[in-house]
Amino acid sequence: MFNAILIEKNDGAYQSNLTEIQDTQLPEGDVTVRVAYSTLNYKDGLAITGRSPVVRTFPMVPGIDLAGTVETSSHPRYKAGDKVLLNGWSVGEKYWGGLSQKARLNGDWLIPLPESMTERQAMAIGTAGYTAMLCLIALERHGLTPENGEVLVTGANGGVGSFAIALLANQGYSVTASTGRLEEAEYLKNLGATTIIDRNELSNPGRALGKERWAAAIDSVGSHTLANVCASTCEDGLVATCGLAQGMDFPATVAPFILRGVSLLGINSVTRPYDERVEAWQRLSTSLDMTQLEAITREIGLSEVIPTASELLDGKVRGRIVVDVNR
């Protein structure tokens, strides 16, 4: 028996509970992992609370991230005792995820844990840091350098935003952070932001074209915010978009793209090929100041996940939530 968060839906009733599960209940897969740490992301919060129908099959163990040790494996890449991590691949939505002391998975979804990184550090980074790194890699592949000018990060107090600021600053970029919590300005400056702006400057309907303000942006908000970000991006600038905290809509015009040559880069972190995942995590292991993780991270036990999920969706959580599934 092992402990896990289990989401069930019976006769229309949606319930999330911390419960005991037998090994025989684990789904099919060629690798079984003894999980050490998982995370609590926005999508996990939606799944646990039922505020959005992200769970596609029931019962479901949520948790889109996990890190741990291989217990058994018939996959050619892994053997018992290997340290591994996972992000995405619809775990926690279609397939049982990481908010559990044990997981059985498709080995193709896993990558080796970088040698210089602990399991806890990997989950302190999690999908949020991994997605932020994918954004930075995409911007750099399209020619962005620190000499191009200011880079905007929206949703700055969230997980992706926090890591985006830290990664950009550590690579020498000048960073503007957009946040709805101006009282957290010191936190953002400690991560490396040089300028703080109120998200209200971007979150309301705006003009088709605004004043040119930043050379590039990493946006995890979507909707009017993303439209205004594009409208105020400099000529031949770049915008990496990876989230929809404000909404899935994109109420923009073509003006920034055809009059200024702005490029909008979509970031899909869920199904990246193995080599791209390994590259992103290797860069995270060398480009991120690990001492900053403590400022970004709060650790909870598995028993605290359900109430914390509501806090996360209510905007009361700063940075990252790491879950020690064994307490």
Largest beta sheet, briefly?
Answer: 7 strands, mixed
End-to-end C-alpha gap = 15 Å
In N-to-C order, the SSE pattern is: EEEHEEEEHEHEHEHEHEHEHHEHE
Number of helices: 10
Approximate shape: globular
- Percent helix, as a range, is 25-40%
Name the beta content range. Answer: 25-35%
Features:
single chain, 327 residues, alpha/beta, seven-stranded mixed β-sheet, six-stranded parallel β-sheet, 15 strands, 29% helix
How would you sum up this structure in a few lines?
With 327 residues, this protein is α/β, with parallel strands linked by helices.
Give the topology.
Elements: E1 2-10, E2 13-21, E3 31-39, H1 42-49, E4 65-73, E5 83-87, E6 102-105, E7 111-112, H2 119-141, E8 151-153, H3 159-170, E9 175-179, H4 185-191, E10 195-198, H5 200-203, E11 214-219, H6 223-231, E12 233-241, H7 255-259, E13 263-266, H8 274-287, H9 293-296, E14 297-301, H10 305-313, E15 320-324
Parallel strand pairs: 8-9, 8-11, 9-10, 11-12, 12-13, 14-15
Antiparallel strand pairs: 1-2, 3-4, 3-6, 3-15, 4-5, 5-7
Helix pairs in contact: 1-10, 2-3, 2-8
